[in-house]
Design a protein that fits this description.
- The protein contains eleven helices and 14 strands.
- It is α/β, with parallel strands linked by helices.
- Strands 8-9-10-7-11-12-13-14 form an eight-stranded mixed beta sheet, covered by helices on one side. A six-stranded parallel beta sheet has the order 3-2-1-4-5-6, with helices on both faces.
- Strand 1, helix 1 and strand 2 form a beta-alpha-beta unit.
- It starts with a strand and ends with a helix.
Length: about 350
């Protein structure tokens, strides 16, 4: 068993990490750290076998009893907490955004190399069902040469972000580009490769300290242009994906169902978990000749399934942290080209 501690029990730790760690037979969830009394009570109720602590320094006093630390804390804390965990000889999973700067990310990778520990980043949206489906279409050549890739994460939150996200400036990893753009950029690069040119339009329209309505356009070395839109002020949604190629186009509405299912109380392994409702299936083809595409099921648990052999030294980690650094470099270029 891989003895595991989760730091942070907000949306990240409670929704995206603890349920999958508990479900995977390779892991035991031994410690949960949260400074919020209500969340501590909830953690103790949901995971009675775990010890709930209130501060990271309390956890590191138990370093000999754990193998893996998962950081679900605000991004401004990631560099220090990951460094401390590595210094204690622990493997580390860092939720996205990895850290607030590419320089910090590069330094952490070197620190992990020197410590001989695995460091990886939880880019869970690589296992969204709609993304897995689009990757299949691209890899199988069903779209032909892809000219444009439009990808969106849009919410309707005119009241602005909550909790720490509302108070976090860009310098500490705040804003929708760091939050949602990290996923969109990572997916674009995974599909279409290195980026040669970048254009950005970042806006701060509502509450909070940083951007909340932003667009980034990437020109990939292979010629594809990715148009990435992220907004917390979308009163009506646009397609999640709209992809145009030399053979066909693909349009997909609606977000992957795993997050809302988890928030609603579903758990990995439940019947139908990760399955997209038919109303959200994408459409492939050309004008006048289209058909719906049955999607791949979403599977966030694949991250931890692939991580287990990496921690045993038998495989590469599911996400190379160098990929996350490259995403950070693109985010930095976007902020430089479109300062708020």
């Amino acid at each position: 068993m891989i003895r595991t501690a989760v730091l942070g029990f907000g949306v990240s730790g409670r929704i995206f990490h603890a349920p999958f760690l508990e479900h995977d037979e390779h892991y035991s969830l031994d410690f949960i750290v949260t400074g919020n009394p209500d969340r501590a009570e909830q953690a103790a109720a949901e995971y009675p076998k775990a010890t709930v602590l209130f501060r990271p320094d309390e956890l590191f006093q138990h370093a000999g009893e754990i193998d893996l630390v998962v950081l679900g804390t605000p991004p401004g804390t990631h560099a220090e907490l990951a460094s401390t965990a590595l210094d204690h000889g622990l493997h580390v999973v860092v939720d996205k955004p990895f850290v607030p700067s590419s320089e910090q990310g590069t330094a952490l990778i070197e620190r992990a190399r020197q410590a001989g520990r695995v460091l990886t980043v939880f880019q869970n949206r690589r296992w969204d069902g709609d993304f897995l489906t689009l990757r299949r279409l691209v890899d199988n050549g069903e779209l032909g040469e892809v000219y444009t890739f439009e990808s969106r994460f849009e919410w309707w939150k005119p009241q602005g972000p909550r909790d720490w996200k509302a108070r976090t400036p860009v310098a500490e990893g705040g804003g929708i580009l760091f939050d949602l753009g990290t996923h969109l950029i990572d997916q674009a690069v995974q599909l279409f490769g290195p980026v040669e040119r970048l254009w950005a339009d970042l806006a701060h329209r509502g509450a909070g300290e940083a951007d909340d309505d932003s667009v980034v356009v990437l020109t990939h070395a292979g010629g594809t242009r990715s148009r990435l839109v992220m907004s917390g002020l979308a009163a009506l949604p646009a397609p999640r994906f709209h992809v145009l190629g030399s053979k066909a186009g693909y349009t997909k509405w609606g977000l992957d169902p795993q997050e809302p299912a988890l928030i609603g109380g579903a758990r990995p392994g439940d019947p139908g978990f990760g399955q997209e409702p038919r109303d959200n299936w994408g459409t492939l083809g050309v004008r006048g000749e289209t058909h719906v595409v049955e999607p791949e099921p979403g599977e966030y648990g694949a991250f931890y399934r692939l991580l287990a052999p990496a921690l045993r030294g038998e495989a590469a980690p599911p996400v190379d942290p160098a990929d996350a650094v490259e995403v950070l470099k693109l985010i930095e270029r976007a902020h430089e080209s479109s300062p708020l």
